[in-house]
Design a protein that fits this description.
Number of helices: 8
Shape: globular
Strand content: 25-35%
Keywords: ATP-binding, Cytoplasm, Disulfide bond, Nucleotide-binding, RNA-binding, Transferase, tRNA processing, tRNA-binding
Structural class: alpha+beta
Number of strands: 19
CATH architecture of the largest domain: 3-Layer(aba) Sandwich
Oligomer: single chain
Distance between the termini: 76 Å
Enzyme class: transferase
Subcellular location: Cytoplasm
CATH class of the largest domain: Alpha Beta
Protein name: tRNA-specific 2-thiouridylase MnmA
InterPro entries: MnmA-like, MnmA-like_C, MnmA-like_central, MnmA-like_central_sf, Rossmann-like_a/b/a_fold
Strand order of the largest sheet: 14-17-16-15-18-19
Number of domains: 3
Radius of gyration: 24 Å
Length: about 400
Amino acid sequence: MTTAGARILNSLDLPKPPGETRVVVAMSGGVDSSVVAALLREEGYDVVGVTLQLYDHGEATHRKGACCAGQDIQDARQVAARLGIPHYVLDYESRFRETVIDTFAQSYASGETPVPCVACNQFVKFVDLFETAKDLGADALATGHYIASREDGFGGRALYRAFDAARDQSYFLFATTRAQLDMLRFPLGEYAKSEVRELARRFDLDVAEKPDSQDICFVPSGHYTDLVERLSPGAAVPGDIVHVDGRVLGHHAGVIHYTIGQRRGLGLGAAVSGRAAEPLFVVRLDAAKAQVVVGPREALETRRVALRDVNWIGAGDLSDLPAEGLPISARVRSTRPPAPALLRPLPGGGAEVVFEAGEFGVSPGQACVFYERDDTRGRVLGGGFIAQAEAEPPAPEPALELDRSA
């Protein structure tokens, strides 16, 4: 128990004894959420497990690396039974298909690189689970994500990168709102993955050695294009492969078969045999023109990204940021470290991020997540989705010269 002013707080920063604190745990059937349930149960909290069935579990029952379907639901149920806690399975297949799978297919067909895990957290898990938790009279909703949260000193809560940088999932949770943060708890934020597995063994959980789930859980074949062609017939429109200098180098069977930064599998060996042998990369996808634009590696460099659907959870409001920009660290892929940048608000609720050094392979549809520049643990300030990526930041407007002849 800790103190904050006159209040006595439990380990979840709530002013109640654990036995009087109900916590709904989002149980996916994996080792992480199972350990969260076990830890909270051991501390004496009133724990209720809830699992969302998100897609046709028949397709994934025997597939390794799946989540929220088939065997995972059975695993969550077995863990709950072992811990002696109530467990509910809620069917949200229709919501998941409409808000995550269909949107993923449409975005991919338009030449973007979507991040479905963000959409799943934003529109399904942190919406439906919240409503369920409230209906069950819960004081908190806990998940097995590797991210940390704590009080911000101003009556709210703040998000921070996980202690285990290799497992940090803050990139996928930037869209969490302030209202959600008040109720969310992430007990694994200060643990390493190896420690979590050791805890699972101590609790004698059958999932202790279970492999981690894949990022794209709803693609049974592992081939995104199969899903896109099935859900968006006609998405694979043939077109030209064009060099950034305007030359047509070849033809393709649809932009859905390519990703920004791709080098292999372009099929352009013969087309460029008469020129200096420079490696070519996919630098842009233009679905409207059915063009795959390729060029040298330097053509992949991005210095500025314009963002849509921006979520701000830093201090104050996004519109309060200084006109010259707020120094931040920004992350354009989950596998990359945050890089120094400037964040500027744009009219209409958008924002732009200008990097101090070039980022490579940035694609529309990806997330760009903001972190506090000088915070060693990386407080999450929010983020948005990349609408446009540019090689150079906009040049400053020239200063007006006074006419001194008058």
